[in-house]
Design a protein that fits this description.
Blueprint lengths: L2 E6 L5 E5 L20 E4 L12
Antiparallel strand pairs: 1-2, 1-3
């Protein structure tokens, strides 16, 4: 299950939330610091780790 980063537009708090990819578009989150529902997805880098060496 991927972990996404979010940022509160009201207080600036950055937090993470684990959710299914299908749930990502419809999830309704609140800031854990101030309780505001004005949160935005903060794009982050993605790293793939494999067990085979190339």
């Amino acid at each position: 299950m991927p972990t996404y980063q979010y940022r509160c537009q009201k207080c600036g708090e950055v937090f993470e939330h684990a959710e299914h990819m299908a749930e990502h578009e419809t999830v309704q989150l609140r800031c854990p610091k101030c309780g505001s529902d004005a949160v935005e997805h903060k794009p982050t880098q993605f790293f793939a780790k494999t067990s085979k060496k190339s």
